[in-house]
Amino acid sequence: MALFFATSAAALAQKGPDFDLPVKCGVEQPCFLQNLMDMDSGPGFRDPFCNAATYDGHKGTDIRLRNYRELRATGQVYAMADGVVTAMRNNMADRLMETAQDQARIRGRECGNGLVIDYGMINGARYTSQLCHLARGSIKLRVGDRIKRGQQIGRIGLSGATEFPHLHFSVSRNGQLIDPVTGSLSDRACSDGKLKNTLFSASALKPLVETGFKLLLEDGFADGPVNGTKILKSQIKRPGANTPFVYFAKFINLKKGDFLRLSIEGPAGLLTSRQTEPLDRNKASYTAFIGKRNRPPSGTYRGNVELLRGGNVISTHTSKPFRF
């Protein structure tokens, strides 16, 4: 996804709120944009960059965490700008929506724990935001409280309609939903990748662009077959002396026709390799693995994964070393 960002912070401030990010993003703690706003007002869907990183009717932005381990260790949520809390909920349980019964249980409360913030009039327009899926009891505020830019307002949780830990936030301008990354109204055409009308400040947008649009979510070595749920719930175990030896990679927002090439290299060179079948449809998340039934000889091993789209390699990655 090619994005262009060369507009000064002063120019951006004239166009909108000049928001900070609601989470901390950087190289050490990257953000991952799982779902963007659906810009298609009909039964189809398209994200603000004319891609498929969304689903029909999604009217916000999802910044996700990779797994439960990160949920326990990080996930603080911060005020994007000065404002006033106008609504909130803080007492729903943190629980993944995994079944039809779960979906029925939270009907009408899909946002889970969250709050609405009114930022007042900014450059002639009124901006508000809604933040969802916070952890129960983590919001230490009341309706009517004034908050300051950068103030911690809660933590990411699993409340409401959550299939993975994430913060969902939406922004409205004069009551109309607007995509904060591009500054486009929800019923407008998708973008050419230029962010001259973004609602974010230059300092906020830089780490979001650098880390947020990555497709590889997580990779590593495991003691047997791996699926997305095991990765999400931090249930991956290190290979042992009497277990299989597996390298896995989990991606998000893949397109129909994408495929992966995986390999493991060790002291003697190539240990094993595999190419997946092209995807038959778009995938919000996709996990593949490769390995051996028995432990290989002692030494240092690395996993490699390539993502191919349209016959071209668009992403390559080499894992951290694994040593027996």
Number of continuous helical runs: 5
Largest β-sheet summary: 8 strands, antiparallel
Taken from the alpha-carbon principal axes, the silhouette is globular
Please, what is the average pLDDT? 90
State the assembly state of the protein chains: single chain
How far do the termini sit from each other? Answer: 38 Å
C-alpha-based Rg, rounded: 21 Å
Secondary-structure element series: HEEHEEHEEEEEEHEHEEEEEEE
What's the helical proportion of residues? Answer: 10-25%
Number of strands: 18
Structural class: mainly beta
Contiguous low-pLDDT stretches (5 residues minimum) are 4-14
Name the beta content range.
Answer: 35-45%
Describe the structure.
This protein is mainly β. It is built from 5 helices and 18 strands. Strands 1, 2, 4, 5, 6, 7, 9 and 10 form an 8-stranded antiparallel beta sheet that branches. Strands 13, 14, 16, 17 and 18 form a 5-stranded antiparallel beta sheet that branches. The longest helix is centred in the middle third of the chain and has 10 residues, at 202-211. It is globular.
Provide keyphrases for this structure.
324 residues; mainly beta; 8-stranded antiparallel sheet; 5-stranded antiparallel sheet; 18 strands
Ordered list of secondary-structure elements with their pairings:
Elements: H1 9-15, E1 32-35, E2 61-64, H2 68-73, E3 76-78, E4 83-89, H3 100-105, E5 113-122, E6 125-134, E7 146-147, E8 152-155, E9 166-173, E10 176-178, H4 202-211, E11 216-222, H5 228-232, E12 245-254, E13 259-266, E14 269-275, E15 283-292, E16 300-309, E17 312-318, E18 322-323
Antiparallel strand pairs: 1-2, 2-9, 3-8, 4-5, 4-7, 5-6, 6-9, 9-10, 11-12, 12-15, 13-14, 13-16, 16-17, 16-18
